[in-house]
DNA sequence: CAAGATTTACTTGTGCACAATTATGTTAGC
DNA sequence: GCTAACATAATTGTGCACAAGTAAATCTTG
């Protein structure tokens, strides 16, 4: 009797019943799959998503970047320094407000975009989901993300 | 003209069109949401998923654990040492095969399970998805995970 | 305008996460 | 039985990721 009740009581704690775990494992595996492709661009996954924003916006404030990537400065500062060092972006203080750090993609940085265009289809292929499934995954992850962020005020 | 074509050409590289990014961000945010709850058990998320396996199996080999958590020894070794140090698990070499590391949950470790049962509903609530959506997310992430793992040999 | 609050960014410390290398025990083939 | 292959685990090195604390510039408010 005790065992039966315990089984039910603890069911939600089984790894196989968790939604969080496959999400976490899938995310890690995904980043790992990027590895070989990004290695050719000398980028890590985090550096890659920074560059994605830079390609799109050309110029962006550090704060804006942190917000749209959901990263804090503790993570971002060293990443940006490495990208600067590599010559892909330029970091400079804003003249009007000395606190603000403005980031600009360099010519070298733009070149990477040309090489990067081939990556998304490869990743999509290796995930092996249908267009419909990709869309569903997109919608659900963003929904959960939004919900969680609204929680921590 | 060039700009128009470029727009289309680079569309897949926009952050907003990526499936990988919300998955990655959602996973991180999820782990962050666990923080306050796990802090009361003196566990990190990684330590928590190790304990979930330990609670379920009582005894497990290090290799088996690595496999089902999709973690390598570089990650696992220090995590297991900390859990051992904290008194939640015991690490011992197998007598028959000195290479094998056998892990056993301690009485202290089992106590944590009682406290942990309250966590899954809190996390589910803060993700704010319906039962149907949870199931879909579960299925899709496992499917992608399986597909990706079949790729790397 | 001066003091305190706020914003922006950096720093420090801890703990993953993984690739690559090393170490050691076990097994297989000759 | 001995050596080469293999399996298991630990180590090393690099780079996130985030909390907490610090610093400096700007803004607010009396």
3D structure, described in words:
Two copies of one chain form a homodimer. With 153 residues, chain A is mainly alpha-helical. Chain A has a domain at 40-114: Winged helix-like DNA-binding domain superfamily/Winged helix DNA-binding domain (Arc Repressor Mutant, subunit A), CATH 1.10.10.10. Chain A is built from eight helices and three strands, in the order αααβααββααα. The first copy, chain A, has helices at residues 2-9, 20-39, 45-57, 62-69, 73-85, 107-116, 119-127, 131-151; strands spanning 59-61, 89-93, 101-105. Chain A has a three-stranded antiparallel sheet. In chain A, strand 2 (89-93) and strand 3 (101-105) form a beta hairpin. The N and C termini of chain A lie far apart (43 Å). The model of chain A has no long low-confidence stretch (mean pLDDT 93). Chains A and B meet through helix 2, helix 3, helix 7 and helix 8 of A and helix 2, helix 3, helix 7 and helix 8 of B. The structure holds a DNA duplex (30 and 30 nucleotides).
Key words describing this protein structure:
153 residues; mainly alpha; homodimer; DNA-binding; Arc Repressor Mutant, subunit A
Query: What would you give as the CATH superfamily of the domain at 40-114 in chain A?
Result: Winged helix-like DNA-binding domain superfamily/Winged helix DNA-binding domain
Beta percentage of chain A is 5-15%
Reported by name, the CATH topology of the domain at 40-114 in chain A is Arc Repressor Mutant, subunit A
Major β-sheet profile of chain A: 3 strands, antiparallel
Nutshell version of this structure?
Two copies of one chain form a homodimer. By secondary structure, chain A is mostly helical. Chain A has helices at 2-9, 20-39, 45-57, 62-69, 73-85, 107-116, 119-127, 131-151; strands spanning 59-61, 89-93, 101-105.
